[in-house]
Structures are given as structure tokens and as C-alpha cells.
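User: Here's a structure from my thesis project, written as C-alpha cells. My advisor, Dr. K., wants to see whether a designed sequence matches the one we expressed. Can you design one independently, without my sequence as a hint?
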């Protein structure tokens, strides 16, 4: 019988398995830009090895490196670190621990990708041997005090909407492929000034800083370990946080609270709120911000149309499915400045 190297269980069974566990989990992340000659072989071996440790999560493997967000049984944390230290591909990778724990992942998914961050850049547009200077949280805070510096959020709009560093440039984009051209445009004329970059865990800043250096920016620095490491250090060392709000994360938690500030609004009633949710209508499943009152009013959906469809009988859903899909496609395509966002996987 062929070896099973991917999950075959449905979501309900996976959640049931997770809830039956009698141990605690940690949400961890790491990345490494390193040459991997045989991503397929590494992918399959990792799947075997991590499954033994009951590790869940999402991992991307490429010829240029690895990017991992994982849920690890607390008693297997040392086993994971020993495993990483035993393999050249992971040597030197810094393991970041989530600011808030929770049910982050239900299954283990390891995919082979062209890039571990989907910028869609040609290799001539960057040189990973030349990246920005890595700044500790204390160094980053100090650098922010320079009135001549420019701080840039290397994340999508729906991420920065709920939390960001004060006075940062926030690219108005929804996809990773759009970020770097938008950042370069926003920084036009600042090639010889101090540029400070930050992102969730640091990985997006690596290639972003290299891209800017390749485009003749002379003083580029980045927050080492990203917002995740920053928030942990702020908590541990009692440093004043210059990041306000939540840190959006690409797992089932959808966010980690960094400071009590709520800087965004419910997309339906405009009340102060920063809770992301996915539309309960699986034919839509958009990501948006919704308060508890609107969640009740719209049955967890992003619109009355999605809510109404959810309340149809099974036969009615089948009969109206195509009409609804056409309507929804037109509705989403027609947004000039969208308030609802799809998670880009």
C-alpha cells in the first residue's frame, strides 16, 4: 500500500481529534532562506518526521528555503528543536513562539512552492546575500525616534488595518505580489534616507529589503523576527510597545492581541472592532471584520445576501447556487476599495 503523505480526514474529524488531546500545544514559526536542491524529497521526509511528533500546521518548501507556521505539542518542543539542529536545512533558523496560544491549526499541510513568500519576483530583482540590517526591538524603537526615518509595513492592508507601528506607510494592497511595487512607489525620492521595514515574523522583510537594496536604497533596516518577536520581547523585557493593536496571523486564530488599542471598525456597522472572521457562507468565505452584534444579525455572514442563502433549504441552495455565485462574483469584482478580503494562501 502506498505511503500516506497528506491528510485525508475531513475538518470535523480533525477538530474532534484536536479536542480529544490531553496535552497543551504551542504555536511556533520559523523560516530559513537556504538552497534546497530537492524540495520534494525534503517535503516528504518532513511530513513523516513531523507527523510522528503530532505536529500540525502549514509549511512551504522551495529551492530557496522553508517557511513554517506550526502547532507543536508542548512535550515535543525539545524534540522539534533537536530535529531542526540535526538537519543542515534548518541550521540557524530562529524559532518564534506565538504571543497568544489557541487552536491555530487542525492538520499538517506541507506544500512545494516556487517562492516561500509569493512576491512573484524575478531572481534578477533581488540578491538574498544582501539584505537589510536586522534590528532588535530596542534598536527598532530607538530608530523610530529619528524624525528623518521612514517606517514601512510589509504586509497586506487587511493585516495592517487591525494593527501597525505608529506613522508607518501602510500599502493599500490585498496580495503579496502587489506589495513591493507599491512600497517602491511610496518610497520614491527616499533612496538615501533611513528605511525601516517590519512584517509578521520577519520573512517578508528579508526579500523586501534585498529588493530595495537592489533598487539603490542605501540605508535599509528590518525588525528582526518581526512583530511576533517584538511583542514577546516587549512583554518579557517590559519595553514600551510602539506597535498598536493586533497582529494578524494566517491561522485559525486570525489575530494576536499586542496592545489594548482597537484601531479598526466593523465592516458592517462601523463600530470600533478588530475581530476578523470568515463569512459563514462557504460559497463566499470572505475574510472581514465583524462585531458580535453584526455576527448575530447576519448569521456570521458578510452580507444579507450571504445570510439569506445560508437559510435556504438544501434543495433551494442547489437550485440557486449558480445564480448566487454569479451575483457574488459581480459584487466582489465591483468593489473599488474593498472592505472585505480573501485570505491569500
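Assistant: Designed independently from the structure alone:
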Amino acid at each position: 500500500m502506498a505511503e500516506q503523505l497528506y491528510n485525508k480526514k475531513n475538518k470535523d474529524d480533525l477538530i474532534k481529534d484536536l479536542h480529544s488531546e490531553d496535552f497543551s500545544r504551542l504555536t511556533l514559526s520559523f523560516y530559513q532562506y537556504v538552497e534546497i536542491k530537492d524540495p520534494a524529497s525534503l517535503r516528504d521526509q518532513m511530513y513523516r518526521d513531523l507527523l510522528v511528533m503530532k505536529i500540525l500546521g502549514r509549511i512551504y518548501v522551495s529551492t530557496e528555503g522553508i517557511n513554517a507556521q506550526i502547532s507543536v505539542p508542548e512535550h515535543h518542543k525539545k524534540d522539534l528543536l533537536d530535529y531542526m539542529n540535526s538537519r543542515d536545512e534548518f541550521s540557524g533558523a530562529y524559532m518564534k513562539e506565538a504571543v497568544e496560544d489557541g487552536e491555530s491549526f487542525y492538520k499538517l499541510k506541507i506544500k512545494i512552492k516556487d517562492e516561500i513568500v509569493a512576491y512573484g519576483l524575478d531572481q534578477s530583482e533581488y540578491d538574498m546575500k544582501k539584505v537589510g540590517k536586522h534590528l532588535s526591538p530596542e534598536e527598532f524603537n530607538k530608530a523610530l525616534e529619528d524624525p528623518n526615518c521612514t517606517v514601512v509595513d510589509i504586509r497586506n492592508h487587511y493585516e495592517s488595518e487591525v494593527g501597525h507601528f505608529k506613522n508607518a506607510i501602510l500599502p493599500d494592497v490585498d496580495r503579496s505580489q502587489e506589495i513591493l511595487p507599491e512600497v517602491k512607489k511610496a518610497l520614491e525620492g527616499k533612496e538615501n534616507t533611513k528605511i525601516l521595514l517590519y512584517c509578521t515574523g520577519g520573512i517578508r522583510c528579508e526579500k523586501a529589503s534585498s529588493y530595495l537594496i537592489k533598487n539603490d536604497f542605501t540605508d535599509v533596516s528590518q525588525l528582526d523576527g518581526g512583530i511576533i518577536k517584538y511583542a514577546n520581547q516587549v512583554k518579557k523585557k517590559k519595553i514600551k510597545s510602539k506597535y498598536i493593536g493586533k497582529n494578524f496571523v494566517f491561522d485559525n486564530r486570525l489575530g494576536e492581541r499586542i496592545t489594548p488599542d482597537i484601531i479598526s471598525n466593523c465592516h458592517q456597522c462601523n463600530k470600533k472592532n478588530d475581530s476578523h472572521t470568515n463569512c459563514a457562507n462557504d460559497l463566499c468565505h470572505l475574510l472581514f471584520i465583524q462585531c458580535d452584534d453584526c455576527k448575530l444579525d447576519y448569521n456570521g455572514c458578510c452580507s444579507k445576501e450571504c445570510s439569506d442563502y445560508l437559510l435556504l433549504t438544501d434543495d433551494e441552495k442547489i437550485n440557486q447556487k449558480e445564480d448566487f455565485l454569479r451575483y457574488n462574483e459581480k459584487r466582489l469584482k465591483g468593489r473599488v476599495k474593498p472592505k472585505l478580503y480573501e485570505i491569500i494562501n
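When you compare it with your expressed construct, this may help: Confidence is low (pLDDT under 50) at residues 334-345.
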